[in-house]
Amino acid sequence: MTASNFTRSLAAVLKDEGGNDDDPDDHGGRTSRGITQREYSAWLKEQGRSDADVWTAPQSDINTIYDAEYWMPECDKLPLGVDFQFFSMKVNAGPYRATCILQEALGVAADGRIGPVTRQALANMRMASVVQSFYVESRNFYVGLHQPKFLQGWLNRAAADKALALLMLEGK
User: Fold this and answer.
1) Cα separations in angstroms, 36 against 29, 30, 58, 64, 77
2) How do residues 84-121 score in pLDDT, each as one tens digit?
3) Among 32, 107, 142, 169, which lies 20 to 30 A Cα-Cα from 55?
4) Which residues of 66-100 are buried (b: 16+ CB within 10 A; e: fewer)?
5) At CA 48, angle to CA 42 and CA 14, rounded to 5?
6) Is the pLDDT of residue 33 over 90?
7) What does the alpha-carbon distance between residue 135 and residue 142 come to, in Å, rounded to a whole number?
8) How far apart are alpha carbons 107 and 23 in whole angstroms?
9) DSSP-derived secondary structure letter, 80
10) Is 1.20.141.10 the CATH number for 5-169?
């Protein structure tokens, strides 16, 4: 439950997200470092800035979007390790789906909102168990998408996220 895990978590997510991509089979379309062109254009407009190509976006813009749109507000309120897994899933599947996956991992109704029921369930579980359950629910989600082209990469990401989350729990 500390803001200090953002930098480490961001580095891991950026490694997973890679560089520039425009795979016709990826629903996100033109993407750079995990941020879609559509999202970047909307964010620039909100900032009162001119539209620009996401592939040439400054890293500072990418970092700011990740902090404001994916890390905040929930991740700082989550235990170390779980914050990273949740952040990574928010980036990869969206905030609503990530919240539902966390709730499924906790065994509470998946309503897409982190409220008192979700927080209480989280407080009552061992964090290593939450990390393992989050991993299982993430795998189930990815398999259920029926997109074989991307499945192995997603499963590898879920496993790597679990491993890093457990290291974070151990203070490593």
Assistant:
1) 7, 6, 14, 14, 26
2) 999 999 999 999 999 999 999 999 999 999 999 999 99
3) 142
4) beeebbeebbeebbbbbbbbbbbbbbbbebebbbb
5) 50
6) yes
7) 11
8) 35
9) T
10) yes
Query: Beta partners for 35?
Result: 32
Contacts for 3 with CB less than 8 Å, ≥ 6 apart: 76
Quick: pLDDT tens for 128-166.
999 999 999 999 999 999 989 999 999 999 999 999 999
Whole-model pTM? 0.93
**Separation of CA 70 from chain center:** 7
Q: Say what the pLDDT of residue 97 is.
A: 97
Bond prior to 73 in cis (omega within 30° of 0): yes
- Tell the residue number behind the tokens 């990574």, with chain if given: 88
Section 54-81 average pLDDT: 95
Which residues 6+ apart lie within 8 Å of 18 measured at CB?
33, 34
- Could you tell me the two tokens for 67? 């902090």
103 by DSSP, 3-state: which?
helix
Strand order in the sheet with 20-21: 20-21, 31-32, 35-36
Tokens of 111: 């309503």
Q: Which residues contact 90 (CB under 8 A, 6 or more apart)?
A: 70, 98
